[in-house]
Amino acid sequence: MSQDNLIKMECTACKRVNYFSRKNKKTLKNRLELKKFCVHCKKHVAHKETK
Fold first, then answer.
1. Average pLDDT of span 16-24
2. Can you name the CATH fold of 6-50?
């Protein structure tokens, strides 16, 4: 994965970085938020994009 398109996804419940993903920053200006499974919380929780 190229470094300029790489984003980190952080759990909103426990604040841990669980996922890495890619995003086209030219077309998507807002921060991404997805419901994903958190291994530490052991449930599906919203994950937000971090810096």
1. 93
2. Rubrerythrin, domain 2 (2.20.28)
